[in-house]
Known about the structure:
By secondary structure, the chain is α+β, with helices and mostly antiparallel strands. The protein has three helices and five strands, in the order H-H-E-E-E-E-H-E. The strands form two sheets. Strands 4-3-5 form a three-stranded antiparallel sheet. A two-stranded antiparallel ribbon has the order 1-2.
Amino acid sequence: MLWYMLFGIGAICIIITLGIKLKQRREKSSRSNVIYLKDVRMQTKLQKCYKCKKAKKLRFYSDPSGKVTGICKECETQAGGQKMLPL
């Protein structure tokens, strides 16, 4: 009888531990704000340009503060004077 009780308590502890681990894994994946440029480049949907707001194929640049912006070819010539680093 004692063995059944110990086995039941052990099984309950394992189930609770697995439930906590799964919950932590879901919370960790939902908190991620990372957007991979490789995935963005593979999209078929065109994004809007940061400057002219037209849906075109974009090139991504980083400004001195680290903000990533997408600029189309037409607006790229206008942004030439700014210190933008290509990604």
